[in-house]
Amino acid sequence: MSEHSQAMKGANQALRVGVVGVGYLGRFHAQKYAALPGVTLVAVVDTNADRAAEIAQEAQTTGLTDYRALFGQVDCVSIAVPTQFHHDVARDFLTHDIDVLVEKPLTATAAEGQELVALADRHQRILQVGHLERFNPALRSLTGILTAPRFIECQRVAPFVERGTDVDVVRDLMIHDLDVILSLVRSPVTSIEAFGVPVLTSEPDIANARLRFASGCIANVTASRVALKRERKMRVFQLDTYLVVDYGEHRIRICRREPGAQPGALPNLTFEEREVGGEDALEEEIRAFLQAVRDRSQPVVSGQDGLQALEVAERIVGCLEIP
Predict the structure, then answer these.
(1) Topology of 3-130+283-300 in CATH?
(2) What class does CATH assign to 134-279+312-321?
């Protein structure tokens, strides 16, 4: 089917969708698809037959245990299986000309990610990566405010949960901030220093990384999955402006130096606080994916974006100093 024919098909009739892996995250994907207009949720898939049946009943669709049963039956899929299976499952759908939204990280290794990105390009398929923070209304409200970041500080900490421990904290939590930072700075990373500590698992559960970019920007990033409370904040410093983004509270704070101060005098500062709630980030992510499928357009978070974040995460893990 030609790209034009696919676009016309997507514009004129419901997209047929499947969800592969309906654990914690996949269940939410199924719920969103089931509620959206212009979408037919053909089936949900999970190797646990009872779980597949439970979520299928919730979403009023069919439950399957073998994702290959979706080949030829769907136009696109969400993949929310454990990270070590991302590559094989996404590869199989892409080679069957089915568009893919895969949860982060893109794959377990950068080499696998490179293969998926090349495969999607070769088959002219949409490959979007589930870096949900890009759809957070707090971050999206910075458009036009952020121009040339010089220093970025990110802190992402959360209480320990078993979910996500198939990878280290860098690829579990820090990768969210790496993707955001890379999308803001848009400059090559020239050097990395990193430190990590395993606490409750065999992999680092808390890590800090300092990234230096060719542009001169510095980013200091901390991620922990052994905190007592959840916190997700980013602070950005650029010429004349300091911003604080609180992802959890959907709030931004802006401090600006006003022009016109006399030489040697203290600067005039203005402070502004904005609440930017009201959007469902996962629904926005899925709507963006479906739009890219219909339009055959570049996803907001492309496979290449996901690969870039994964490559930096892999470099951080590779140079982690662990006591």
Answers:
(1) Rossmann fold (3.40.50)
(2) alpha beta
